[in-house]
Amino acid sequence: MASTPQALKVLSRFGFTSQFSVEALKLTTGDQPKSDNFKILDVATGTGTLSLFASSIFKNADIIASDFSPNMISILNQIIKEDGITNIKTKVEDGMNMKDYNNDTFDYCYSMFGLIYFPDRVKGLKEMHRVLKPNGKVAIGSWRKDHYFPVILSKTYEKLMGKPLPIEQPIISLGDKDQFKKEMEEAGFKNVQIHLIDKIPKDLKEYKDILSKGNPVIDDVLNIIPDDKKQQFEDLLVQVTEQTYPRKSDGTIELDSPCYIGLGTK
Asked: Which top-level group of life is the source organism from (predicted)?
Protein backbone atom coordinates (compact mmCIF):
# COMPACT_ATOMS: atom_id res chain seq x y z
CA MET A 1 0.00 0.00 0.00
CA ALA A 2 1.23 3.48 -0.72
CA SER A 3 -0.32 6.82 0.13
CA THR A 4 -0.61 9.05 -2.93
CA PRO A 5 -0.95 12.84 -2.73
CA GLN A 6 -4.63 12.34 -3.62
CA ALA A 7 -5.12 9.94 -0.70
CA LEU A 8 -3.41 12.37 1.65
CA LYS A 9 -5.66 15.17 0.41
CA VAL A 10 -8.75 13.10 1.16
CA LEU A 11 -7.45 12.23 4.63
CA SER A 12 -6.72 15.91 5.29
CA ARG A 13 -10.35 16.83 4.75
CA PHE A 14 -12.19 13.80 6.06
CA GLY A 15 -9.64 11.49 7.70
CA PHE A 16 -9.81 10.00 11.14
CA THR A 17 -7.57 12.60 12.81
CA SER A 18 -9.91 15.38 11.70
CA GLN A 19 -12.21 14.46 14.59
CA PHE A 20 -9.48 15.33 17.08
CA SER A 21 -8.79 18.65 15.37
CA VAL A 22 -12.45 19.59 15.79
CA GLU A 23 -12.19 18.75 19.51
CA ALA A 24 -9.04 20.88 19.85
CA LEU A 25 -10.81 23.85 18.27
CA LYS A 26 -13.80 23.44 20.58
CA LEU A 27 -11.62 23.19 23.67
CA THR A 28 -9.75 26.39 22.87
CA THR A 29 -12.26 28.66 21.13
CA GLY A 30 -15.50 27.35 22.58
CA ASP A 31 -18.48 26.17 20.57
CA GLN A 32 -19.61 29.69 19.69
CA PRO A 33 -16.88 32.32 20.07
CA LYS A 34 -18.10 35.93 20.20
CA SER A 35 -15.78 36.81 17.34
CA ASP A 36 -13.68 34.86 14.86
CA ASN A 37 -11.42 37.77 13.97
CA PHE A 38 -8.31 36.14 15.38
CA LYS A 39 -4.91 34.83 14.32
CA ILE A 40 -4.16 31.09 14.34
CA LEU A 41 -0.82 29.33 13.95
CA ASP A 42 -0.95 25.61 13.09
CA VAL A 43 2.53 24.19 13.73
CA ALA A 44 3.63 20.94 12.05
CA THR A 45 0.31 21.04 10.21
CA GLY A 46 1.00 18.02 7.98
CA THR A 47 -1.51 18.31 5.18
CA GLY A 48 -3.52 20.87 7.11
CA THR A 49 -6.35 19.00 8.80
CA LEU A 50 -6.80 21.47 11.65
CA SER A 51 -6.24 24.53 9.46
CA LEU A 52 -8.82 23.36 6.94
CA PHE A 53 -11.46 22.88 9.63
CA ALA A 54 -10.60 26.19 11.27
CA SER A 55 -10.87 27.90 7.88
CA SER A 56 -14.34 26.49 7.26
CA ILE A 57 -15.62 27.42 10.74
CA PHE A 58 -13.92 30.78 11.31
CA LYS A 59 -14.34 32.73 8.08
CA ASN A 60 -12.61 35.85 9.39
CA ALA A 61 -9.65 34.10 11.01
CA ASP A 62 -6.14 34.70 9.73
CA ILE A 63 -4.53 31.23 9.64
CA ILE A 64 -0.91 30.27 9.07
CA ALA A 65 -0.22 26.56 8.52
CA SER A 66 3.45 25.63 8.75
CA ASP A 67 5.39 22.40 8.42
CA PHE A 68 9.02 21.29 8.13
CA SER A 69 8.13 19.13 5.10
CA PRO A 70 7.81 20.87 1.71
CA ASN A 71 5.85 17.84 0.49
CA MET A 72 3.16 18.26 3.15
CA ILE A 73 2.86 21.98 2.41
CA SER A 74 2.67 21.26 -1.33
CA ILE A 75 -0.32 18.96 -0.77
CA LEU A 76 -2.02 21.54 1.44
CA ASN A 77 -1.40 24.22 -1.19
CA GLN A 78 -3.19 22.04 -3.74
CA ILE A 79 -6.20 21.72 -1.44
CA ILE A 80 -6.26 25.47 -0.80
CA LYS A 81 -6.19 26.15 -4.53
CA GLU A 82 -8.83 23.54 -5.40
CA ASP A 83 -11.19 24.73 -2.68
CA GLY A 84 -10.63 28.44 -3.26
CA ILE A 85 -9.61 29.01 0.37
CA THR A 86 -8.48 32.57 1.05
CA ASN A 87 -7.75 32.69 4.79
CA ILE A 88 -4.94 30.09 5.05
CA LYS A 89 -1.33 31.01 4.33
CA THR A 90 1.27 28.24 4.27
CA LYS A 91 4.92 28.21 5.22
CA VAL A 92 7.73 25.65 5.16
CA GLU A 93 9.23 26.14 8.59
CA ASP A 94 11.03 24.53 11.51
CA GLY A 95 8.62 24.66 14.45
CA MET A 96 11.54 24.83 16.88
CA ASN A 97 12.84 28.05 15.31
CA MET A 98 10.01 30.31 14.14
CA LYS A 99 12.21 33.37 13.71
CA ASP A 100 9.90 35.10 11.22
CA TYR A 101 7.21 35.69 13.87
CA ASN A 102 7.34 38.44 16.46
CA ASN A 103 6.48 37.84 20.09
CA ASP A 104 2.80 38.13 21.04
CA THR A 105 1.43 37.61 17.52
CA PHE A 106 -1.18 34.82 17.62
CA ASP A 107 -4.40 34.26 19.56
CA TYR A 108 -4.24 30.46 19.22
CA CYS A 109 -1.49 27.95 18.47
CA TYR A 110 -2.03 24.29 17.61
CA SER A 111 0.01 21.23 16.81
CA MET A 112 -2.08 18.13 16.26
CA PHE A 113 0.19 15.06 16.27
CA GLY A 114 3.12 17.08 14.93
CA LEU A 115 5.05 18.37 17.94
CA ILE A 116 5.40 14.76 19.15
CA TYR A 117 7.99 14.30 16.36
CA PHE A 118 10.18 17.26 17.32
CA PRO A 119 13.73 16.37 18.42
CA ASP A 120 13.27 18.94 21.21
CA ARG A 121 9.60 19.18 22.13
CA VAL A 122 10.09 21.77 24.90
CA LYS A 123 11.94 24.04 22.48
CA GLY A 124 8.97 23.84 20.12
CA LEU A 125 6.56 24.54 22.96
CA LYS A 126 8.61 27.54 24.06
CA GLU A 127 8.45 28.95 20.53
CA MET A 128 4.67 28.54 20.51
CA HIS A 129 4.52 30.23 23.91
CA ARG A 130 6.66 33.11 22.63
CA VAL A 131 4.53 33.88 19.59
CA LEU A 132 1.22 33.69 21.46
CA LYS A 133 -0.39 36.89 22.67
CA PRO A 134 -0.81 37.31 26.44
CA ASN A 135 -3.64 34.97 27.53
CA GLY A 136 -3.45 33.22 24.15
CA LYS A 137 -4.20 29.50 24.12
CA VAL A 138 -2.38 26.44 22.85
CA ALA A 139 -3.62 22.92 22.08
CA ILE A 140 -1.26 20.01 21.43
CA GLY A 141 -2.38 16.55 20.25
CA SER A 142 -0.60 13.32 21.19
CA TRP A 143 -1.63 9.69 21.10
CA ARG A 144 -1.76 7.73 24.36
CA LYS A 145 0.55 4.75 24.82
CA ASP A 146 -2.22 2.19 24.29
CA HIS A 147 -3.24 3.65 20.92
CA TYR A 148 -3.61 0.92 18.32
CA PHE A 149 -0.75 2.23 16.16
CA PRO A 150 2.15 1.51 18.55
CA VAL A 151 0.47 -1.75 19.56
CA ILE A 152 0.16 -3.18 16.06
CA LEU A 153 3.47 -1.77 14.83
CA SER A 154 5.29 -3.50 17.67
CA LYS A 155 3.44 -6.77 17.10
CA THR A 156 3.98 -6.68 13.34
CA TYR A 157 7.69 -5.92 13.60
CA GLU A 158 8.23 -8.70 16.12
CA LYS A 159 6.30 -11.18 14.00
CA LEU A 160 8.28 -10.27 10.88
CA MET A 161 11.76 -9.85 12.36
CA GLY A 162 11.58 -12.23 15.33
CA LYS A 163 12.65 -9.59 17.88
CA PRO A 164 11.10 -6.60 19.68
CA LEU A 165 10.85 -3.25 17.91
CA PRO A 166 14.17 -1.54 18.77
CA ILE A 167 13.06 2.10 18.48
CA GLU A 168 10.95 4.36 20.63
CA GLN A 169 7.92 5.40 18.63
CA PRO A 170 7.54 9.21 18.43
CA ILE A 171 3.79 8.77 18.12
CA ILE A 172 3.66 8.16 21.90
CA SER A 173 6.45 10.55 22.94
CA LEU A 174 3.87 12.49 24.97
CA GLY A 175 1.75 9.44 25.74
CA ASP A 176 2.26 9.85 29.48
CA LYS A 177 -0.13 12.40 30.94
CA ASP A 178 2.19 13.61 33.70
CA GLN A 179 5.13 14.04 31.32
CA PHE A 180 2.91 15.91 28.89
CA LYS A 181 1.83 18.37 31.60
CA LYS A 182 5.40 18.77 32.86
CA GLU A 183 6.77 19.71 29.43
CA MET A 184 4.02 22.24 28.77
CA GLU A 185 4.62 23.89 32.14
CA GLU A 186 8.38 23.87 31.53
CA ALA A 187 7.71 25.86 28.37
CA GLY A 188 5.88 28.49 30.42
CA PHE A 189 2.22 27.59 29.91
CA LYS A 190 -0.25 28.18 32.74
CA ASN A 191 -3.50 26.42 33.63
CA VAL A 192 -2.32 23.28 31.82
CA GLN A 193 -4.96 20.60 31.38
CA ILE A 194 -4.56 17.26 29.64
CA HIS A 195 -7.85 16.06 28.15
CA LEU A 196 -8.48 12.47 27.10
CA ILE A 197 -10.35 12.17 23.80
CA ASP A 198 -11.21 8.77 22.37
CA LYS A 199 -12.49 8.21 18.85
CA ILE A 200 -12.86 4.84 17.14
CA PRO A 201 -12.49 4.37 13.38
CA LYS A 202 -14.69 1.49 12.25
CA ASP A 203 -14.57 1.54 8.48
CA LEU A 204 -12.26 -0.99 6.82
CA LYS A 205 -11.26 1.33 4.00
CA GLU A 206 -10.52 4.18 6.40
CA TYR A 207 -8.11 2.23 8.54
CA LYS A 208 -6.44 0.70 5.50
CA ASP A 209 -5.80 4.23 4.27
CA ILE A 210 -4.23 5.04 7.63
CA LEU A 211 -2.01 1.94 7.54
CA SER A 212 -0.18 3.05 4.44
CA LYS A 213 3.25 4.18 3.37
CA GLY A 214 3.59 7.94 3.53
CA ASN A 215 2.16 8.03 7.03
CA PRO A 216 5.14 9.11 9.19
CA VAL A 217 4.17 6.64 11.91
CA ILE A 218 4.47 3.75 9.45
CA ASP A 219 7.58 5.19 7.80
CA ASP A 220 9.46 5.34 11.12
CA VAL A 221 9.33 1.56 11.28
CA LEU A 222 9.71 0.92 7.55
CA ASN A 223 12.97 2.85 7.64
CA ILE A 224 14.60 0.20 9.83
CA ILE A 225 13.27 -2.80 7.87
CA PRO A 226 15.34 -4.33 5.03
CA ASP A 227 14.06 -3.37 1.57
CA ASP A 228 13.24 -6.96 0.66
CA LYS A 229 10.86 -7.19 3.64
CA LYS A 230 9.07 -3.83 3.40
CA GLN A 231 6.13 -5.07 1.32
CA GLN A 232 5.76 -8.10 3.57
CA PHE A 233 5.62 -5.76 6.57
CA GLU A 234 2.87 -3.64 4.99
CA ASP A 235 0.78 -6.71 4.15
CA LEU A 236 1.34 -8.20 7.59
CA LEU A 237 0.29 -4.95 9.23
CA VAL A 238 -3.29 -5.35 8.02
CA GLN A 239 -3.39 -9.00 9.11
CA VAL A 240 -2.10 -8.18 12.60
CA THR A 241 -4.63 -5.35 12.91
CA GLU A 242 -7.58 -7.64 12.20
CA GLN A 243 -6.17 -10.34 14.50
CA THR A 244 -5.64 -7.89 17.35
CA TYR A 245 -8.96 -6.10 16.89
CA PRO A 246 -11.44 -8.72 15.61
CA ARG A 247 -14.53 -7.66 13.73
CA LYS A 248 -17.81 -7.45 15.60
CA SER A 249 -20.93 -9.28 14.49
CA ASP A 250 -22.04 -6.27 12.44
CA GLY A 251 -18.77 -6.31 10.47
CA THR A 252 -17.27 -3.22 12.07
CA ILE A 253 -13.80 -3.08 13.54
CA GLU A 254 -13.02 -0.94 16.58
CA LEU A 255 -9.47 0.34 16.93
CA ASP A 256 -8.49 1.77 20.30
CA SER A 257 -7.46 5.36 19.57
CA PRO A 258 -7.12 7.33 22.81
CA CYS A 259 -5.63 10.79 22.36
CA TYR A 260 -4.46 13.44 24.78
CA ILE A 261 -5.04 17.08 23.96
CA GLY A 262 -2.89 19.32 26.11
CA LEU A 263 -4.27 22.81 26.71
CA GLY A 264 -2.41 25.78 28.14
CA THR A 265 -2.58 29.56 28.41
CA LYS A 266 0.23 32.06 28.06
From this structure: Eukaryota
